[in-house]
Amino acid sequence: MRRRPRRRPVTRWRWQQCKNGFVIQDVSFQGQTGEANVPAANVPVAPVSPIVYTTGPHPGRNEVYPALPTGYVPPQVPMVMPVPDRPLGCPPGLEYLTQVDQLLVHQKVELMEVLMGWETKNQYVVKNSLGQQVFFVAEESDFCTRMLCGSVRSFLLHIQNNMGQEVMTLSRPLNCGSCCFPCCLQELEVQSPPGSPIGYVMQSWHPFLPKFTIQNERKEPVLKIVGPFCDCKCCSDVIFEVMSLDESSAIGRISKQWTGFEAEAFTDADNFGLQFPMDLDVKIKAVLLGACFLIDFMYFEHSPKQE
Predict the structure, then answer these.
(1) Confidence at residue 15, expressed as pLDDT on a 0 to 100 scale
(2) d(C-alpha 217, C-alpha 106), whole Å
(3) In whole angstroms, how far apart are CA 154 and each of 70, 121, 220, 256, 290?
(4) The whole model's pTM is what?
(5) Residue 11, beta-bridge partner list
(6) Which residues is 202 bridged to in the sheet?
């Protein structure tokens, strides 16, 4: 008599779709007789937790990943300004300035400076009027210079674009900060690309008004900046007007924005707004941005603990 071959068990899977993938609902198989093998009623069965299969970084594999916790918020990616076309004669990296007539400068709050009163390296984020990041600015200076010289210290400011490439360098030498010495006033050199000067910010002597002269790469005067008699105003902005050479008309402004009682009292992190004509030379726009940083160091870089 010919022996009948044994049938191999056939696995049957029943899948139930859930939120994060698929869950195995139950498993049954057929034996030799073709009937489903199920556990008897009096046989205890250990509970089995469902297995959740989710899509991982390797779609070709069955990888199990835990579900995200409730309330998880993915990290926010800052909005960046798209790169425009660079016009002829524009230094590399300054093509961003050809598309804007306003800039917002936000200084980052340093925790060590707030708690200990130690002067730390300043960092800024420059944005356009839509809130898109244009530049990131970082100060280069040593600890002794910051602690001994304070707001009149010399420094280098490295300005990077959104790709991390340095597009501008601002250089400030160590000069006197008093109007009693008109022969050694504040100045700032703007380089773009680093090593190639494109303009200067020179402090002009005046007995009681903050005044600056904007110069081009040949050190020829182009614009003037005139500040208020008092640079300390409560609950209002401090305005520095950008004016023509004869100071007869204003073409823009640099405004130090009021940030509230808490921020003004416990930190020296400031916010600035810049306004200038859209058709202004891109190099002069970059020099006006450098003038904003010089004004911040000269008149608003004073923490309460240092005072």
Answers:
(1) 46
(2) 27
(3) 50, 12, 24, 22, 14
(4) 0.70
(5) 29
(6) 187, 213
